[in-house]
Design goal:
By secondary structure, the chain is mostly helical. Helix content is 76%, strand content 0%. The chain has one domain (2-45). The chain has four helices and no strands. Helix 3 packs antiparallel against helix 4. This is FXSXX-COOH protein.
Length: 49
């Protein structure tokens, strides 16, 4: 998941980007079970839940 790489490189960009936040929320709705834990963690860290 490239969003996790972005979080590592520039977490402030991910937090403040409306497009990135929207992508994370859309991903949360569509994610395969294999990646669900990673996406849920990202959602929590971005305080989107």
């Amino acid at each position: 998941m490239h969003l996790l790489d972005l979080e590592d490189l520039a977490p402030e960009d991910l937090v403040h980007s409306p497009l990135a936040r929207d992508m994370v929320l859309q991903l949360q709705r569509r994610i395969r079970p294999v990646f669900r834990r990673q996406v849920s963690g990202l959602v929590e860290r971005l305080q989107l839940a």
